[in-house]
Amino acid sequence: xxxxDAIQCFLAAxxxxxxxxxxxxxxxxxxxxxxxxxxxxxxxxxPDILAIVTGxxxxxxxxxxxxxxxxxxxxxxxxxxxxLDLIIQSLIKRIPNEKNxxxxxx
Length: 106
Known about the structure:
Elements: H1 3-15, E1 22-26, H2 35-43, E2 50-55, H3 61-64, E3 73-76, H4 81-92, H5 97-100
Parallel strand pairs: 1-2, 2-3
Helix pairs in contact: 1-2
């Protein structure tokens, strides 16, 4: 799908109290919006969202300096699942405990 679909999916989940805590966005996604633009839009409603950017161009500024674009980490494609797991495990530690075990809405 595309960037607008990703944004709509995120917002719909948020409106039903099913929050995403970590996103993986591709710089090479065929969309009118790139990963940085998608994350910027999502951060207007969820400034604490964690995101990993993936791409095939390691010299891309977003890939080299992900935090300057709001990303928690970057991974160059192709990557090994073991490496992705290590990054995810390190980022999960940054999610406050109440987000790890959200309570159901009344």
